[in-house]
Design goal:
Number of helices: 10
Number of domains: 1
CATH architecture: 2-Layer Sandwich
Number of strands: 7
Largest sheet: 7 strands, mixed
Oligomer: single chain
Strand order of the largest sheet: 2-1-3-7-6-5-4
């Protein structure tokens, strides 16, 4: 028997209960998911897990009713989460090895009759910073899906909201496929947000307002590089899985899993296009800065060239020696000033004629 109040508390608990369980649902693909707590999940696994493990793995019959399964979502920041999974979930060693090693390479691979997935996703409070990305570890079996994370993530939280509002995947693989599609949709939003920021920077560049656009472009480019590096699934692992899926995985589930990974490929190509665009903008900003520096250096050079004869002449006339020209003339000062006034325009015309001709 389910306890509605306990189940609702488990569904709404964001940080996790005493066992580190953020949420838990029982699904059969025919109706809304039923929220349960950690005690009920342990009882269900004890009653059904051994039976599922001992039964021979066979391909699901066509049009057969999907078997019920649990989705357990854990917060790894709580030490009890790992202990609960080791004690009650019966997960394969490969899952715990991935957790302990901190593996962050996005992949989906098979370990006997269990699927082990490592997905990287944006933080729940994503602020377009390169380090606002964390890892979600997933174990998928016919009767159990376990997801674990150390930081709140956007995609899995969106999936929680959908399940809480009545969405119920028909199978455990369908839940994994829905999670990947939700993540792909979140990446589309991130790419759209980055595109808007790049458009704003480009408008400012065209308007001649340089300010700090080079630093902002650098942050966006590092973000896209990190997203592309962490989110791109390993093609070899996925190819091996699709070529040799577990016996309990249906053909429809395998095809939908393949389609969800193709959505990732489309988003990653868009990211690569944005990186090229940012690179071109950075080159344009650098060219503008170099042009401004060259212009300032030219002005400084012209001023130095024009002032050099004046400095030489005043230095010679200021020497404390005999024979200085016009030293005894009452109009000597004005004669020298007149010569400088005539020389300055001529020197300026000679200095500026070259650039204008070019």
């Amino acid at each position: 028997m389910n306890t509605p109040l306990a189940g609702a508390a488990a569904g709404q608990n964001y940080g996790g209960d005493a066992a580190g369980l953020i949420c838990a649902y029982r699904m059969d693909g025919t109706g809304p998911a039923q929220p349960i707590d950690s005690v009920q999940a342990a009882e269900w696994l004890l009653a059904h897990g051994q039976e599922e493990a001992e039964a021979p793995a066979t391909a699901p019959a066509e049009n057969a009713a999907p078997p019920p399964f649990l989705w357990l979502h854990f917060n790894l920041s709580q030490a009890q989460a790992m202990r609960w999974m080791e004690r009650h979930a019966g997960l394969p060693d490969a899952f715990f090895e991935a957790l302990r090693e901190g593996s962050h390479s996005t992949r989906i691979e098979r370990d006997d009759d269990t699927l082990i997935a490592v997905l990287n996703d944006a933080h729940f409070d994503f602020a377009f910073e390169p380090f606002d990305i964390a890892t979600l570890w997933i174990s998928v079996a016919p009767h159990l899906v376990v997801t674990a994370r150390a930081h709140p993530l956007r995609s899995v939280d969106a999936l929680r909201t959908a399940v809480r509002n009545g969405h119920s995947p028909r199978s455990s693989v369908a839940l994994l496929e829905q999670l990947m599609r939700t993540q792909a949709a979140g990446l589309v939003d991130i790419v759209r947000g980055v595109t808007q920021r790049i458009d704003g920077i480009e408008d400012e560049l065209l308007a001649g307002r340089l300010d700090h656009k080079r630093a902002r472009l650098g942050v966006l480019r590092r973000l896209l590089v990190r997203l592309q590096r962490l989110l791109a699934p390993e093609p070899a692992a996925l190819f091996r899985l699709l070529q040799n899926p577990p016996a309990w995985m249906g053909a429809e589930d395998a095809q939908e899993l393949r389609d969800s990974t193709e959505e990732f490929s489309v988003v990653l190509r868009d990211m690569q296009g944005l990186q090229e665009r940012i690179k071109l903008l950075q080159e344009e900003v650098a060219a503008n800065v170099q042009e401004a520096n060259s212009r300032s250096l030219f002005v400084l050079t012209v001023v130095t060239v024009l002032a050099l004869p004046i400095n030489i002449l005043t230095g010679l006339l200021g020497m404390n020696v005999g024979g200085v020209p016009l030293a005894d003339s009452p109009h000597g000062f004005w004669i020298i000033v007149g010569l400088l006034v005539v020389f300055m325009p001529v020197a300026a015309w000679i200095a500026l004629r070259g650039p204008r001709d070019r």
